[in-house]
Structure formats: C-alpha cells, structure tokens
Design goal:
Helix content is about 45%, strand content about 15%. It is α/β, with parallel strands linked by helices and about 200 residues long. A four-stranded parallel sheet has the order 4-3-5-6. The protein has a two-stranded antiparallel ribbon with strand order 1-2. The chain is globular and about 60 Å long. The N and C termini lie far apart (about 60 Å).
C-alpha cells in the first residue's frame, strides 16, 4: 500500500471489512471521509454508534428493531395465522416493499450450508418450531433464497413442519420481469416452467 499515513491505512483496512467493499473502494472511501468537514464525520460516527447501541433482535421473530417486540410483531392488524420464514432481516424489507404480504415473519439468520459447517442447530429453527407449537399459525411460507442453500433449508423445514398439520408453501421462483431467457440459469428456467400458469 502507498505511504500516506498509518491512520489512513487503518481506516481503509477497517472499511475493506464491510461487505462489498474491496481494497480500492476502501481507499476511495477513506480519502473521501478524511476530506469531509468534521461535523459530517462526527454525524456519521454518531449514527453508527447509535445504531449499534439501539438496534436489537426481536425476541419473537428475530428481525432487527429498536423495540421488542418489533413493529411488525406488535402490529395487531397483521394476519397472525400466516408466517413467512426468511433467511435474513433484509429479506423482510424486500417483502414489505411489495406491500402485499400482511402476515408475520420469522428470521432464520442464515441457511443450511453443510460445506461450511452450518447446520440447522446454528439457525433459529428451534424458535420457529416453538412458535408453531403455540397453534395459532395455519400456514408457513418458506421464502428462503432460490439457491442451493436456500432450497436445502426450505426442504429441511418443509419436512420438519408438515407433520405438525401446518400448511407449508414456497414462494414462486422464475424469471424476473424484464429478464431475458438467454441469461437465465438452468434452475431459474426449471422453476419458471414448474410455476407456469394458464393465460
């Protein structure tokens, strides 16, 4: 690395630990931050510290929130008979943008990845089963990612939940609107064909 000061090197190294930030982007960000007015840098630091101190996981669904229970779990207008299972809190944000789903959520905090030693015991599956044991939920929507890990997790959960007399559904997968067939992978095309409907 070029010699421009240890403090700038340390900042770039810390920034490069963020997801999606490579060494060159980290350098650009470090230079950008150092060039900013002190008040702007202080506001950024304050926002990071405040978010780290105030954000926690909801004890019911394990979504990130400043409140426990989170705003979704506390909302009495939500349909409490339907539970959408997602891998990550960010998936809830994506689902909520569509403004179609009105039920509750459960965040697994990952997916089953045997090659990395991540089994069901590392996810919030016991907590999911406890929620289902309460008897209020009649349908579980499995909304894990349409990749190998997401499919493995969905199949595992389906086998675990079906004996509980709870309806288990899977979100549809297929080609995105505006997508081109020539760029679609085999699994996406297969799911698109399986999910076809009459027009």
């Amino acid at each position: 690395m070029a010699k421009w000061g240890e403090s700038l090197n340390r900042l770039a190294n810390q920034l490069s630990r963020l997801p999606g930030i490579g060494p060159k982007t980290a350098q650009r960000l470090a230079f950008f931050l150092v060039a900013q007015e002190q008040a702007k840098v202080d506001a950024l630091v304050k926002a990071i510290v405040e978010a780290k101190e105030k954000m926690r996981y909801c004890s019911t669904c394990f979504h990130l929130s400043e409140n426990d229970p989170c705003e979704i779990c506390a909302d009495e207008r939500r349909d409490r008979s339907i539970l959408c299972v997602v891998s990550d809190p960010r998936d809830i944000l994506a689902m909520e943008k569509a403004r179609e789903y009105k039920g509750l959520y459960h965040v697994l905090h990952g997916a089953i990845i045997p090659s990395e030693g991540i089994g069901p015991d590392r996810l919030k599956i016991k907590e999911l089963i406890s929620r289902l044991d309460e008897g209020e939920i009649s349908e579980v929507i499995l909304a894990t990612n349409p990749n190998l890990e997401g499919e493995t997790t969905a199949m595992y959960l389906a086998r675990l939940i079906k004996p509980m007399q709870v309806k288990v559904t899977r979100i549809a997968h297929g080609l995105p609107v505006g997508g081109d067939l020539e760029y679609a992978d085999e699994i996406t095309l297969m799911r698109s064909l399986e999910g076809r409907r009459e027009v």
